[in-house]
Task: structure prediction
Amino acid sequence: MSGNKSVFDSGPVLLDKPETMLKVLTELVADDATSWRGMIDVWDTGDGAAWRVELNDDKGNQAKAVQGQYLVLTYGRLLVLDASEV
Result:
């Protein structure tokens, strides 16, 4: 990531749309997926689509966040925050 701006540079990342989830996943996984792995889920709730990103690191830590929550990368760990915590 040297020379490139991280999605986490400006603080907590609002997962406001699926494209933002994909940016986070793409940045963390990079080219090799040795440190981070993950996936994006979508399902019908009856009132529209619900989106979730799941991320796992190589130390066994897991973060699951739904659209509307925030992700913070700190000391190599991901924290999931709600709007009231930001």
Remarks:
- Residues 13-85 form one domain.
- The chain has a mean pLDDT of 93.
- The beta strands are 13-14, 36-44, 49-57, 62-66, 70-74, 77-81.
- The longest helix spans residues 18-29.
